[in-house]
Design a protein that fits this description.
Keywords: Membrane, Transmembrane, Transmembrane helix. By secondary structure, the chain is mainly alpha-helical. It is built from 14 helices and no strands. It folds into 2 domains: 319 residues, Up-down Bundle (Formate dehydrogenase/DMSO reductase fold), CATH 1.20.1630; 76 residues. Helix 8 packs antiparallel against helix 10. The longest helix is centred in the first third of the chain and has 35 residues. It starts with a helix and ends with a helix. Bound molecules: protoporphyrin IX containing FE (HEM). Protoporphyrin IX containing FE binds next to helix 2, helix 3, helix 6 and helix 8. The site of protoporphyrin IX containing FE has 22 residues, from helix 2, helix 3, helix 6 and helix 8.
């Protein structure tokens, strides 16, 4: 692939701020997206096992619906969080993203319907299990497979976008144009590694779940201990599987001895000991977040190097500074997003820790955060629409 083609595919308007900022935001937000992908697939997969045990086992009777609920919420969060890296990738790597979307156009359409169908069936599974313990097994399995397929499609887009040298051949194999949009590329080792991370993530989730419930009197000690030890077992086995898959992936792409790869391996070993010991799973979670960020950075490093070799560097993307847009974006992200998420998390934490019905209006912190969130949101809407209308009318009147 000639660098001039890649450069010609960039947005002529340039980028509104320094590319490195978009790159950092991409790494950060993809790690967040991935965290919920792994939690969704992990908790859903384990809940399916639970549906077979739930009738005869008291522990699984409690755990299974909770896992189904965790998966259900995680899917909605992963969808929301998937939008952010999507926006950043199309700002700095637009040639890659749009060529991929053209070559795999049919899969892009199919992706949306796959997600809609998979999530609807998930709700079916959730209600069937609620109505009848152990119910909805088959629908649950179908939904699980559909969601894994959605992840495989995402993987296809990521992999195709990393193959600029082959684009021409995909577009016109043997010189004959193929505009069907059915291009599909899978890198099996990379995909296995990505999906395998669901196992340690659900293991650690169980340790957190157990720790969280340990202060509640309505959950027996046997149950709390059972979930903690189950989490340890799943976490350890999962980490070993992911570590092997990671090394295989690094060997394949030739990055095994790169400092970033070594840092990830060290991170995984540290995680392994922390999960085995389970002295404070909340701290283990912080380490997991760091490792997830490193893995996200690794994905970006591989892409950056492939593109740099072809003469495309995001750092040379023409910058057309647009300070107000960036300020608005950062304020929305940090202030509205930060306060809103803090409100939801505080509320969820307190609801979970409280026995019986929790009345948020009687809680000082929750009320304060709720009021802040509402006021900031109203202010945000006024500024957003006011600003938009002003610019629109200034342009057309
Ligand atoms: C159940 C649904 C989904 C699953 C299981 C899933 C899973 C994944 C996986 C495994 C990857 C990494 C692929 C790789 O690096 O090989 C990925 C990447 C990504 N996903 Fe998702 N995803 C889902 C839905 C979404 C949605 C709805 C969006 C956007 C709204 C999204 C946006 C992204 C983006 C932007 C990337 C990075 C692509 C790139 O770097 O080229 N995902 N996803």
């Amino acid at each position: 692939m000639d660098a001039s083609i890649l450069l010609a595919l960039r947005d002529p308007a340039g980028v509104p701020f320094y590319p490195v900022v978009f790159q950092v935001l991409y790494v950060l937000t993809w790690a967040l997206h991935a965290a919920f992908v792994f939690l969704a697939l992990g908790s859903m997969g384990l809940s399916l096992y639970g549906t077979f045990k739930q009738k005869s086992d008291e522990n699984w009777k409690i755990l299974t619906p909770h896992l189904i609920q965790t998966g259900k919420i995680s899917i909605s969060i992963l969808i929301v969080l998937g939008v952010a890296p999507l926006l950043f990738t199309q700002v700095i790597y637009d040639p890659n993203w749009y060529v991929t979307n053209t070559l795999s156009g049919m899969w892009v359409f199919i992706f949306i319907y796959t997600l809609v169908l998979g999530y609807i069936l998930y709700y079916w599974y959730y209600f069937a299990n609620k109505k009848n313990q152990g119910g909805g097994k088959l629908i649950g399995i179908i939904s699980f497979l559909i969601l894994i397929f959605a992840g495989t499609l995402m993987h296809n887009f990521a992999v195709t976008s990393l193959m600029p040298n082959d684009w021409m051949n995909m577009y016109a194999p043997n010189g004959i144009v193929d505009n069907s949009g059915w291009t599909f590329n899978v890198d099996t080792v990379r995909l296995i590694f990505m999906l395998s991370l669901s196992i340690p993530v659900v293991g650690l989730f169980l340790q957190n779940y157990s720790r969280f419930l340990s202060t509640r009197e309505d959950f027996s000690e046997t149950f709390v201990k059972y979930t903690a030890s189950l989490g340890t077992k799943i976490g350890v086995v999962g980490l070993i599987i992911s570590a092997v898959a990671f090394v295989a992936w690094m060997l394949q792409v030739g990055y095994l001895l790169h400092p970033l790869s070594i840092a990830i391996v060290i991170g995984v070993v540290v995680l392994l000991f922390m999960i085995l010991k389970n002295s404070n799973s909340y701290i283990t979670t912080i380490v997991l977040v760091v490792v997830a960020l490193l893995i996200s950075a690794m994905r970006e490093l591989i892409r950056f190097d492939i593109m740099a070799k072809l003469g495309y560097s995001i750092y040379e993307y023409p910058v057309n500074l647009e300070i107000p847009t960036i300020v608005m974006f950062l304020l929305t992200f940090l202030v509205l997003g930060g306060v809103g998420v803090a409100y939801l998390l505080t509320l969820a934490w307190k609801v979970g820790k409280n026995q019986g019905v929790f009345d948020g209006t009687k809680d000082k912190a929750v009320t304060k955060l709720g009021n802040y969130t509402l006021s900031i949101m109203v202010l945000w809407m006024v500024v957003y629409f006011g600003w938009g209308m002003t610019i629109l009318f200034m342009n057309i009147l």
